[in-house]
Structures are given as structure tokens and as C-alpha cells.
Write a structure and sequence with these properties.
CATH architecture: Sandwich
CATH class: Mainly Beta
Largest sheet: 5 strands, antiparallel
Number of strands: 11
Shape: elongated
Helix content: 10-25%
Length: about 160
């Protein structure tokens, strides 16, 4: 019984911290509880490192055929995990899907050295995907994250936010 109370307290604290992080960065927060009480609770937020407006000038690109906004993705979990992949999607509201770029494990490890997220410690990953410009300016951004805990179980989280 004490272990269940401790797990619930850790999960509640992690959720509260994730909500605080999301409120500060203006990003959305998604919490992904799983079916067992000892499984990881994963929360994430996505924020902008700078206004992406410059990346999407004239409803396309100003000087190059690509746009490169930067996004901070903050991940917090109740158990230690490794970030397996991140897919960032731009959503313009007029079509299903939209441009997307996936960062698999190897490039994430090359960029960050390690993708380990220690339990209870928020970890920020700043990504600058290069999107091909389209005729419509994106209205929002979404990030699909896959983390793998030390037992090998995968946990999926999607977080999104409107663009200014």
C-alpha cells in the first residue's frame, strides 16, 4: 500500500511540474498514463525558441525553399526513459496531415549525446526541423514522441500548440 501511495505521489508531482513547465513556455501538455501503477507517466510540452513567423514569411519562404523554426520539447517522466524518436508536424488547418519530419534515435543521440531522461528531471530537446515551404502558413505544430523505459516498453505522447 505504501508503494502505491508513493507511486501516486510521484505521478501527481510529475503532472504538476509538467503543467507548470507548459504554462511557462505557452505550449500544450499531454500526460500519458498507462494501465499499470508502476508504468511510466510521461508528460511533455512544446514551446517556441523564437517566433516562427520569420520562418514562414509571405506564406512561404522569403529567401530559400525551406523553413527552419526551432522548437523546445520538454519531457518529464516518473521512470527513467530514453527518447526513441520525435516526429514534428506542421498543421495548416486545410488538409489532413501536413509536412512532417521524423528524428529517429541515431540523429537524436548524435545531436544530444544521450537521449536519457532521468525520472523526475525535466529534459529539454531543442529541434530545428527544415520544412519545405508550402502555399499556406501553418496554424499549429504537433510533436509525436516515443520514449522507451528501461524494461523496453514504449510509451507514446503527442503534444501540440498553436503558432503565433
Amino acid at each position: 500500500m505504501a508503494m502505491r501511495a508513493r507511486t501516486s505521489a510521484i505521478a501527481s508531482g510529475s503532472v504538476a511540474a509538467a503543467l507548470a513547465i507548459g504554462a511557462c513556455s505557452g505550449g500544450g501538455v499531454v500526460v500519458s498514463p498507462t494501465s499499470t501503477t508502476t508504468a511510466a507517466v510521461v508528460s511533455a510540452s512544446i514551446g517556441l525558441t523564437a517566433s516562427p513567423s520569420a520562418a514562414f514569411v509571405n506564406q512561404g519562404c522569403a529567401a530559400t525553399p525551406q523553413a527552419a523554426p526551432s522548437f523546445d520539447i520538454v519531457v518529464l517522466t516518473t521512470t527513467t526513459v530514453d527518447l526513441e524518436s520525435v516526429t514534428i508536424r506542421l498543421i495548416n488547418g486545410t488538409e489532413l496531415g501536413g509536412p512532417m519530419i521524423t528524428f529517429p534515435s541515431a540523429p537524436l543521440t548524435t545531436q544530444f549525446g544521450t537521449t536519457r531522461i532521468v525520472a523526475g528531471t525535466p529534459r529539454t530537446f531543442t529541434l530545428s526541423p527544415r520544412f519545405v515551404c508550402g502555399p499556406d502558413r501553418p496554424q499549429s505544430v504537433a510533436a509525436d514522441l516515443v520514449v522507451v523505459d528501461l524494461s523496453g516498453a514504449a510509451h507514446r505522447v503527442t503534444v501540440s500548440r498553436p503558432l503565433p
